[in-house]
Amino acid sequence: MSFTLAIVGRPNVGKSTLFNRLVGKRLALVDDQPGVTRDLREGAARLGDLRFTVIDTAGLEEVTDDSLQGRMRRLTERAVDMADICLFMVDARTGITPTDQVFAEILRRRAKHVIVAANKAEGRAGEDGALEAYSLGLGEPLRLSAEHGEGLGDLLHVLMPLA
Ligand code: GDP
Ligand code: MG
């Protein structure tokens, strides 16, 4: 049985970078039958031996960090409702922001299962931010670097028992 993973979080934390890494060129197949809307991209993901559907909450790019607009909330809620598992991405370099807290609240109320991922954690730059992510109260944060492909083995480990 396969599952659907939604990557959610405020703009610029690295959601699309992870999406692209998980989907690779296979997005081309999905493009023929467009995903849900332009704002939610759907792709066929591969990680180790796992195959699953991944959703990227795209279309948040123009939303500024300090205003959580209704559209951003609705888009995130839609992705959360479609997903079996939510990967809640935060930026390990900037630490937790008030906007992250709003996302955390949406996930606490709505998500079936949440994995917190502190991205941009390559090298030692993200250690403090990753620790700070504990304070979200959504479990132990994974340290990821979507750009450099680090932490994907740990993500696989967390996903495997849930698949
Ligand atoms: P999104 O808005 O959440 O989809 O974020 P993007 O995937 O578009 O990434 C936003 C910016 O963060 C881009 O400039 C990426 O190159 C950068 N980025 C993404 N992942 C990483 C990472 O692991 N480390 C670093 N240092 N930068 C990253
Ligand atoms: Mg994006």
UniProtKB/TrEMBL annotation:
Domain annotation EngA-type G: ranges: 3-163
Residues noted as binding GTP 1 in the record, renumbered to the chain: 9-16, 56-60, 119-122
Protein family membership: Belongs to the TRAFAC class TrmE-Era-EngA-EngB-Septin-like GTPase superfamily. EngA (Der) GTPase family.
Function: GTPase that plays an essential role in the late steps of ribosome biogenesis.
Binding partners and assembly: Associates with the 50S ribosomal subunit.
Name of this chain's protein: GTPase Der
The encoding gene: der
